[in-house]
User: Fold this.
Amino acid sequence: MEDKIVIRNLSKVFGKNPKMALEALKNGKSKDEILNEQKQTIGVHDVNFTVKKSEIFVLMGLSGSGKSTLQRLINRLHTPSTGEIVIDGIDITKLNPHELRVFRRKHFCGMVFQNFAILPHRTVLENVEFGLELQGVEKDIREQKSLEVIKSVGLDGNEDSYPSQLSGGMQQRVGLARGLAVDADILLMDEAFSALDPLIRRQMQDELLELQEKMQKTIVFVTHDLDEAFRLGNRIAIMKDGRIVQIGSAEEIISKPADDYVKAFVENMNRSAILTAGAIMLPPEETALSGDGPRTIMRKIRKKGLAGILMTDTKKRVKGYIKADRLAAYIKENQSKENIPFDENLVEEAASVNEDTPLTDVINSYTEHEYGPVAVVDSDNRLKGVIVRGAVIAALSEDHIETAE
Assistant:
């Protein structure tokens, strides 16, 4: 996937002499020491990362970590002190004010804020049209586009309503619709759902993921909520004191935090909702093949000391699971026969999941199937690995989390 946004050595100092502050940082001064001694604030320091086209990239951290400042640097609402901001191959730090305005209109959908930032004297339709109006789009065209987006976010029928007549969740949808109506590539969302109650917040997260499936925007999403970051982000950047401490998928961060700071963030997370089947699966010790005779299958089971065995065809597609005790009983019943025919009734349904299945759903599979491992399969039902109960227990334990060297 190609890079949409590339950030190189980006720093932002709020103060009269950024060079002095950055030099002090190089010499080992802390952010707080620089504020006390120089009355300058380090917003972001020496940040490097890329955002892929059509991914949701989440910036998260505690208050004052620099996440919102970094987002505002991306579209140059803040002017960087040092560094490059490259979008679609263009370093926007080198653009003059006119060029920057033109660039923003083409590439940025605008920003969706925590406080919705919708205009109280405008109707829903007029609010959604606002960005297009600023771009000089003709009234008929902007109205048509806005109505389409209003429908996509579930607000159809409310076009003539005013913000005061809407619930908090509906007002947030107006803000989201206004950003989407501009139809640019990049959407910036700053604590967009933080002011909503938990149920509506979850619903808005679901709707954003659903919209993203259709629209494939590049989204930079700021939040202080780890659950929200892990739920929405293809990748997450965790920030502290203006720096990025770790970038990775939810699974990478929760499985191997970069340091004690990140570990403290994730230690109370529900790992079963984050870890996936692919992260804890093991290679199958042995499989039975379609066409194997009963004695051949039993030999494989005994050799590995298994309670049963998965059966696949020659292309590794899972056919089912054979219990050792049932197979042994069948062989005993037919031991007088020189060649015992294989009975298809010995093959029971196998529990199976794909590699992206959350561990919570893997646990559900164990509940529904009281026997055997869970097979991890690809989209063609080909066996990729297996999950045994011990692996699930290990994944849910504290010991599963290690701090990266």
User: Anything to note?
Assistant: Residues 278-396 form a domain with the CBS-domain fold (CATH 3.10.580.10). The longest helix spans residues 198-215.
